[in-house]
Amino acid sequence: MPTEETRRIARDFIENLTTGRHREALGNFSAGAYWHLLGRTDEFSLARRYRVEELDQLMSVLAASVTRDHYVHIDSILAEGAHAAVEIRTGGRTPDGRAYDNRVAFMLDIRDGKIEYLREYLDTNHLKAITQGADPGPLQSFR
């Protein structure tokens, strides 16, 4: 896959994700894709590999956790062939006023114009602190 096409797909995905167009963001994934939120599963229940059909629930939990003054800034997008790396800064305030400020790196593997596998690296302790009390529902049952 040409590098510029990979960069475009990565940018489209991030722009859709960070502007609340979650359905469009999910449309960037292939039917058999995975999103891997890395971290220790024994310390953070949301850290695991998600099938594409589970992502809507994950995004809902995350969106409910930062509801005020939300911001996202794309710092960089690097691409080589069918692989892309995206670094963002994101933050805002929780419903009870706590501050959230995190840096996130996404590594994307792209095939046939769709994301096949995404790995997300971030400060999971910080994310855990703002999602405590959020009900991820059936997501906890998948390991």
Low-confidence stretches: 138-143
How many helices? The count is 4
Round the mean pLDDT to the nearest integer and report it: 86
CATH topological fold name = Nuclear Transport Factor 2, Chain: A
How do the helices and strands follow one another from N- to C-terminus?
HHEEHEEEEH
Strand tally, please?
A: 6
> Which structural category fits the helices and strands?
alpha+beta
Per CATH, the class reads Alpha Beta
Shape descriptor reads globular
Into which percentage range does the β-strand content fall?
35-45%
Report the end-to-end length measured between terminal Cα atoms.
32 Å
Helix content: 25-40%
The domain tally reads 1
Strand order of the largest sheet: 2-1-6-5-4-3
User: Could you give a short account of the major beta sheet?
Assistant: 6 strands, mixed
Rg calc: 15 Å
CATH architecture assignment name: Roll
Q: What would your notes on this structure say?
A:
By secondary structure, the protein is α+β, with helices and mostly antiparallel strands. The protein has a single domain (3-135), classed as Roll (Nuclear Transport Factor 2, Chain: A). The chain has 4 helices and 6 strands. The protein has helices at 3-18, 22-26, 55-65, 124-131, and strands spanning 29-37, 48-51, 68-80, 83-93, 99-111, 114-122. Strands 2-1-6-5-4-3 form a 6-stranded mixed sheet. A hairpin with a 5-residue loop joins strand 4 and strand 5 (99-111). The longest helix has 16 residues, at 3-18. The radius of gyration is 15 Å and the shape is globular. The protein starts with a helix and ends in a 12-residue tail after the last helix. Residues 138-143 have low confidence and may be disordered.
